[in-house]
Amino acid sequence: MRRACGIATTTVFLLGGCGVGAQDEPHVVDLPRQALTSPGQGTSEPVGDVAQVICLVRDENLVQQVRRTRSYPTPQAQLDSLVTGPTAEERNAGLTTVLSGVKLTARGITGAQAAVEFPDAGEGRARNDKILAYAQVVCTLTARPDVAEVRFTRDGQRLEVPRSDGTLTSAPLRSSDYADMLQPG
């Protein structure tokens, strides 16, 4: 009897102790952003099986856009999407890219690190455009499940690139290096 009473007490405690009170009706929960697995609202593109993130630019900030495709793109395909830039719908939403015309080459993924060959972007570019260019690549590729960081090379040599605060590094970069540049989509 004592054991049964102990089990009953434990069961009541566990069921009632989660901290969520009982409610008669469901209520709306506002999530911080749309799940990557749900189709976009009002999208004119066909809904695919896989969600991929492309980081575009609005008002000198990064905006993560989810595009649906039939299969998961290669790193090179994602880089090509960045260079091609926004779709018509994304352009209408004020999105752009600072990578137009830049030839980016994915050199592969080793462990969880992607290598990207980045050509000389030219000295005529504004400093913030350079930061945005690297940020677009890093934030796009690190949104992949197989990439945690990105390193840049030029002619096979490690490249020093700016973080969002303007400091230069030749170390691999993570999306956290550009987190303050991200804005909601």
Distance between the termini: 60 Å
Helix content: 10-25%
Total discrete domains: 1
| Average residue-wise pLDDT | 81
Q: What are the salient characteristics of this protein?
A:
9 strands, alpha/beta, Sporulation and spore germination protein, 4 helices, single chain, three-stranded mixed β-sheet, four-stranded mixed β-sheet, 185 residues, globular, GerMN
Explain what this protein looks like in three dimensions.
The chain has about 180 residues and is α/β, with parallel strands linked by helices. The chain has one domain (about 35-185). Helix content is about 25%, strand content about 25%. It is built from four helices and nine strands; from the N terminus they run αββααββαβββββ. The chain has helices spanning about 1-15, 75-85, 90, 125-140; strands spanning about 50-60, 60-70, 105-110, 115, 150-155, 155-160, 160, 170, 180-185. The protein has a four-stranded mixed β-sheet with strand order 3-4-5-6. Strand 7 (about 160) and strand 8 (about 170) form a beta hairpin. The protein is globular, with a radius of gyration of 22 Å. Mean pLDDT is about 80; it is low at about 30-45.
List the helices and strands and how they pair.
Elements (H helix, E strand, L loop, with lengths): L1 H15 L33 E9 L2 E9 L5 H10 L3 H5 L12 E6 L2 E5 L9 H15 L7 E6 L2 E2 L2 E2 L5 E2 L12 E2 L2
Parallel strand pairs: 2-9, 4-5
Antiparallel strand pairs: 1-2, 3-4, 5-6, 7-8
Helix pairs in contact: 2-4
InterPro entries: GerMN (IPR019606)
Pfam family, one: Germane
Protein name: Sporulation and spore germination protein
